Amino acid sequence: MSSNGSPSQIAEGTEQAEDRQKAANAAPQLQDVLRHTCPSPAGPRVLSTFRNILDRDSCDLVWVTKEWRPQQVTLHARTRTTAKIRQDVISSPKMQHTIEQQLSSQNEVPKEALWRELNDILIEMGHTQTMPVVRWFGYVLSKIMRKIYSGVFVNEESIARLRASIGNNPVIFMPSHRSYADFLLMSYVCFHYNIMLPVIAAGMDFVSMWGVGRLLRDSGAFFIRRSFGNDKLYWAAFSEYVQTLITAGENPIEFFVEGTRSRTAKSLCPKLGLLSVALEPYLTGQVSDIVVVPINISYDRTLEETLYSYELLGVPKPKESTSGLFKALNVLDEQYGRIHIDFTEPISVNKFFGDLRSPKLMRPLHLPHQITPDESTRIIWLANYVVRQQQKNAVISLFSLAAVVITHHVLTKPRNQLLNMHQLTRQVASLKSAAESFGALIDCRDNLEVSLQNALHIHKSLIVTSKDGQVQVKNVAAAQAPIDPAKMKGHSLQDKTLQVGVPMVMLQHYVNQTLHLFICPAIVSLSVQQSINQGSGMKDDVFARYLFLRTLLSHEFILHKAWETMDFEQSIQQLQKLGVLDESLHDSMKLSLGSNSHLHQILCQLLLPFLAGYSSACSTMLEVPAGKTVSLNEALKSTQARLEKLLLSAQLNHHYSLSLDLLTAAVNSLSSMGAVIKNKENGKVLYSPNSNRLRQVTQIVGDFLQLVAPICRKSQDEQARLFITQAKARL
Amino acid sequence: MATDRSSFLVKQDVRLSHCSMSAESKEAPTNGDSNSFVEVYSAENNGQQFRKAVKVNLTPSAIPKRRQELLKWNGWGYEDSKFAVRKGVIWFTGNRYPIGELELPYFTQWTKDVFNVDLSKPITPQPPISKFPDPIINTDFMAEIRKCNLVISDDGMDRLFRAHGHTLHDIYILRVGMFARIPDLVIWPDSHDEVVKIVELATKYNVVIMPYGGGTSVTCANSCPEEEKRMIVSLDMSQMNRILWLDRDNLVACIEAGIIGQDLEKELKINGFTTGHEPDSHEFSSLGGWVATRASGMKKNVYGNIEDLLVHVRMVTPTGVLEKHTQGPRVSIGPDFNHVVLGSEGTLGVITEVVLKIRPLPACKKYGSIIFPDFESGVNCMREIAKKRCQPASIRLVDNEQFKFGQALKAEPSFFGHITDGFKRFYVTKMKGYNVHKMVVATLLFEGEQSTVENQEKMVYEIAHQFGGMPAGEVNGQRGYTLTFVIAYIRDLGFDFNIVAESFETSVPWDRTLSLCRNVKGRVAAECKARGILHYLMTCRVTQTYDAGSVVYFYFAFNYGDMPDPCHVYEEIEEAARNEILASGGSLSHHHGIGKVRKKWYRQQVSSQGVHLFRAIKHKLDPTNIFASGNLDSGELKAKL
What's one GO-annotated cellular component (chain A) (predicted)? Predict the structure, then answer.
């Protein structure tokens, strides 16, 4: 252990420690609130309440032309035309004030120009939901989905629960975001269940796609620019647009709290901007409550899986274009398995916030609401809680568990020892029961063997089972056209790195689908092991190590501070039940490893790519000379280069460490731990090392990495031989 | 100090009484000459001022000392007036009100539709109570009081009658149980000087005084604190109901605080004047009560609220009489201590005499009504009218539920013909496209000179037109106002059929009026749903307009089925509704006051410094807490200041 201080001290600057204290103080309160808000469901979730909505009595044509009498969101709702909504925004006190009082006088811009600009912004933004388009689109979607999916399963119990809780207050749908398909699915499901169709906040990228922008607009999407920094007019227009949708309560509003599609299949840390804007009518007393419905959409196989792999490794993302979309239509030849959709317990914001709105001298509505620290704390909680609810209500595919087993095998077993179907089934079975004890609902409808084979079949482009039962990973990147190094977003990786990297990152995509279950137990397991190795094993020593890792990985996983004690205790209990920790010990303050060393090993191994990536990021930043700064991009590039060297020299064997997403999280994490300093110069963000602190962190991360470094090291070339090559890879 | 007015006053029946007063002891009959003016010199205010006219009203109060002989002991209003069920149809008894002796078939149906009541199964309240808590008697005080030649009573019913107001909780208790604490003695003082004497004695012997005016509080302000161990004297002000003088030149009148609204207006009308102060309770509520609760009248747009009408006030406190020694129409003399008296809710002293502004009776009085397609356009129209400051004396906008309720209270079909599809209904709903389940109505009352009224009418209807409003006739407007007094009787009918009902109010800035109405209705709906309440009525009206905002009045009633403690359930829901009101930008009260039911929010409305200030005043005026009604301030000084 580093002599420079305990891991928990290193983990936090004083500021963070204070934050943690605050969160800890408030935590019991939140627990009360949550108990109140979310009565524990009647029983464990079961697959039998999920119904395939593609499997319906009426034919698609009858279905899309059914009489449209949706359940209303609020009683007072009045249907407004697009023009009326625009008019309401323009005539709102806030816009009047922004333009008449603020912008035109400050910037000496003529008012007329501003009003024209506002009108243009609103036209660019506005949705134009029209039922004929929705119906027509629904018809086409039905056909496509029938072709590529074996079912869209919706938890009908959750639909009943949803129905019961809408009617009085504005509703916000917050689905998880893994694929473009999310946009369409939600509306499709609402249409099926006669729930008012959501109006969806979408990124501006779609607008430029010919036809698609219009189509999405007509289906109810409105478009927000990705970044509008200090554009006060745009900000005012955007927030007023969202708020008029909330207060009018005609449609549910849908947005992705993660901000963008998660390329990694892990939940992204929630973004607070849009959520804060949407909650403002509640905070300012314009509506009495808002119902937030976190929604999980679980895909057996993600449409964009290959694309994401390249993207994470730094191969540029093609600009969204319609022709690109058509090219992507070759996805239609593939099978993508099932989709599971679960509307989780609706959250009453008023109850969640403990009726935070204090009767105070209220500011007039045209002035922007200043979010108080207390409100801000709750919004952060809510956002994290929403994401956790999404995670908790996932349906985990057997393939994800298989991916964990296969990855573990590839990393730890000698190259001549291939994984066979029998071993795989056995290991998946034991992992399944572990996952279930962590609260997972696993999509296993038949007996495990059949279900597993079906699951593997869906992913036959990545995993093949030979006739003699050997399980192998396909090299999907084999025939990739040469990539122009200039276009690489990160370090220009060698071809052979990509050949192993792309399939490994793709495989990790499915491993990641399970990580929300395993992350806390994994961190605890590793902390226990290290603590014992250091001769302690006392619970508080373990907790200190756990805190360090948790803080380190807080940009990677949803590990809100308020839950750190709860998560710790729960993980220990679960691990003891599973035999990873010994539960026979009498001393309740001491922890020790149990007999299930295999699961312990798998859990710890899950942290490998993250610790390896973070460790390299630390080293890279340490090399920045004192007084010099680097941009994020530079830091990413040199870290990737460093990692590639390690991979080539067999000092490292997990290619997911190369993920730009992971390395970005690493830099952000180091920055919030105070190990690197973030500076803004001329609008550019630059980083410089905080040497002492960074050295401490590097040391501790290195110590942890030592423990999870694979038992059996293989060079990249050796690893490649575990793969079978594929003649044509698709991108 | 006071003039020798006894010579031209009807001699009050003064006697000491331990037992109840007999029927013969009621007021002496009037001599019929209620119009006599006598020129006198007044010694009041140090004898400096010359009074032009002193008027004494010789009519006795409409309310007798033994109130239970005229008024219900366990419900609202006159004993002979109530909603009753005859052969399955609701009708209204007596002929004091316009709907008296009429059958109400639509209303009957409405109660079934809205509340799912079964009119064949009434619940009977307990019979008149005969067993009362033993009075706590301070013998020294009693001995002195007996020497003072005052009208007093320790009769149980007299004491019980003054132990409550008309809060839901109060009436519910009267129907099913008994208060833990009621006054120990009732005293009817006859003059300011008698009040001074009584307060002196109470202070000397540490006896609690609770002033009692009309007893129409809806905030539990009349309730005796249960934990009070001292003797509690209820000071029934009803006999101090004289107009001491009336000044035609300056348009002011000096009036004793015990006078009730209808007596005051009757007397002034004989002389061609009005105060124009007309709260909905004005049949029964008293002048002193108005001042003590910062009351508001329906016609405040023309005449002003009580604080605008009040020129001078005398309040007897344990440490002396608080009053200003000037009657200037407006003064710049430090903080205005009239405002210490206004809204003090009996916590600082007894209000005995008030000088009020009066106005000549209006030449023209005209009703009107406007229908709007929905509540939102109605509110927008009200805002515009307020902006242009052309409000008539009263303008009220009722929501759709209340609109339908008003229609249901008709004895036979008329303008909107509740059942029949008459031409007018056809015209309104089909030709004009109004939706019967969305439309709302504003009722108007114009008062003033003929030409003023005409101008105002023109402006109001023009503005209404811009907001999609359509004039709907005088009759509908008039009905709206005359029904006001009848509505208070409905709660007693509800009690008989498992329904509890209450009203509450707030004032709110204009831009939040609409969202407040929505939010509070939504919150109440959610609270009902959470409690499994299926049949309820939650309705509101915008009942006053100001430059900066409006006043919203809510009625909430529900069928409680077989809940064991419906009153508590009601209180929980009202508390949630009040939290919603405050969070939606509304105030704690517009005119009902704080009493005991809204105490918990007092601090957050007036700030901790405000509470300190109130306590400092209380401490100086009433150091031994003689006026221990416990209204306004909860007395708990929390650590987090």
Answer: endomembrane system
A286:B584 CB<8 A: yes
In the prediction, which pLDDT does B460 show? 96
Dihedral Cα A329, A332, A335, A340, nearest 10 deg: 70
B515 and A358 within 8 Å at the Cβ level: the answer is no
CA dihedral B570, B576, B578, B582 (to 10 degrees): 180
Q: Per-residue pLDDT tens for B502-553?
A: 999 999 999 999 999 999 999 999 999 999 999 999 999 999 999 999 999 9
Structural domains in chain A, sorted by start: 1-37+396-731 (no CATH), 82-301+336-393 (3.40.1130)
Gap between the Cα atoms of B167 and B489, Å rounded = 13
Strands (E), A338-449: 338-343, 347-348, 395-397, 419-420, 441-443
Nearest to A288 among B512, B523, B605 (CB): B523
The tokens for A259 are 């901000």
The reply, when asked if residue B632 is annotated as ligand binding, is: no
Q: Are B135 and B159 contacting, i.e. CB atoms less than 8 angstroms apart?
A: yes
**Cβ contacts of B583 on chain A, cutoff 8 Å:** 285, 288, 355, 357-359
Is the Cβ pair A287, B583 closer than 8 Å?
no
By annotation, the residues of B acting in catalysis are 553
pLDDT at residue A290, as a whole number: 95
Contact A286 B515 (CB under 8 A): yes
Please report, for residues A609, B123, B322, the alpha-carbon distance to residue A2 in angstroms, rounded to integers and kept in the order given: 22, 80, 77
Mutate: best of A37, A288, A357, partner B, most B CBs <10 A: A288
Q: Which residues of B touch A76 (CB under 8 A)?
A: 518
Q: Which of 4-63 (A) contact B at CB < 8 A? A: none
What residues contact B640, with CB distance under 8 A and at least 6 apart?
Answer: none
Residue B337 has pLDDT above 70, yes or no: yes
Strands B273-274 and B359-360: antiparallel
Per-residue pLDDT, averaged over A387-406, amounts to 95
Q: Give the H or E element holding residue B523.
A: helix B510-530
User: Which domains, from first to last, does chain B contain?
Assistant: 243-360 (3.30.465.10), 364-583 (3.40.462.40)
Encoded tokens for B465 = 């037109």
B295 is in an annotated binding site: yes
Partners of residue A282 in chain B, C-beta under 8 Å: none
Put simply, whether A565 touches B (Cβ < 8 Å) is no
